[in-house]
């Protein structure tokens, strides 16, 4: 019995060490990207709209996220994470289009928005914290632009946009849940995964 407990303690220590190393690697990557903004994206989605409904010609498709529609069983956290990842990709594309023009997808990836997001609270109020480096934009208020673009993607979503004054502190806050046993590597989203080369 004692040997089994020691083995379980050893496995827990190994898992904890792996989570720490993963967090440290993402911290290092986040710092290397030299982000200029800390962005939080929330969905706050409480709509009961069924996205399978026919597209409204005037208002477009329903904006409710796919895991919250009426009459369906609870969808797994994996599906929620994938849906949030998709929304993040769409947000980044919309920002690049606004900042770089209509040929934004042909711009070199190193000239586009770069950074990473960590998705949190996949069981409850799912949201994502991001460290982002936006391309230089002289005529755009990035905070307002972020709110406008995110609101186009979500029915009741909200944003928190802050300039970074303490990069290590912002990165630490962004990655605070990576130490949790429930954290999945799928909750880490790189802007680069949406870039085509």
From TrEMBL:
<feature type="compositionally biased region" description="Basic and acidic residues">
    <location>
        <begin position="47"/>
        <end position="58"/>
    </location>
</feature>
<feature type="region of interest" description="Disordered">
    <location>
        <begin position="1"/>
        <end position="22"/>
    </location>
</feature>
<protein>
    <submittedName>
        <fullName>Uncharacterized protein</fullName>
    </submittedName>
</protein>
<feature type="region of interest" description="Disordered">
    <location>
        <begin position="42"/>
        <end position="65"/>
    </location>
</feature>
<feature type="compositionally biased region" description="Basic and acidic residues">
    <location>
        <begin position="1"/>
        <end position="17"/>
    </location>
</feature>
